[in-house]
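Milestone 3.1: sequence recovery, worked example.
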C-alpha cells in the first residue's frame, strides 16, 4: 500500500460522497472492487467503528477500492 494509493482512494471517495465527479472508468473499477470486497473473508469491521479494513493488506474500506492503481493482495481484482 503506497501513500499515493491512500491519497487517491480517500480523495476519490470523498469527492463522490460530496457530489463531485470522477472519471467513469474509476467509478466502474470502484463498483466492481466493492462488490468483490464485500464477499471477501479478509474484510473485517474495526470494533467500535464503522470503517472496515482488509485484514490482509490493512487498507481502509471502501476508500481502497477508489484508488485505481491499488492491487488486491489476493489478486481478486481484475485490474
Amino acid at each position: 500500500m503506497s501513500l499515493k494509493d491512500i491519497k487517491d482512494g480517500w480523495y476519490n471517495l470523498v469527492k463522490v460522497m460530496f457530489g463531485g465527479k470522477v472519471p467513469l472508468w474509476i467509478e466502474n473499477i470502484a463498483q466492481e472492487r466493492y462488490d468483490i470486497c464485500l464477499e471477501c473473508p479478509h474484510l473485517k469491521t474495526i470494533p467500535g467503528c464503522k470503517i472496515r479494513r482488509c485484514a490482509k493488506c490493512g487498507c481502509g474500506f471502501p476508500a481502497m477500492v477508489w484508488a485505481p492503481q491499488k492491487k488486491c493482495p489476493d489478486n481478486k481484482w481484475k485490474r
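The two ends are 16 Å apart (CA to CA). Strands lie at 43-45, 52-54, 60-61.
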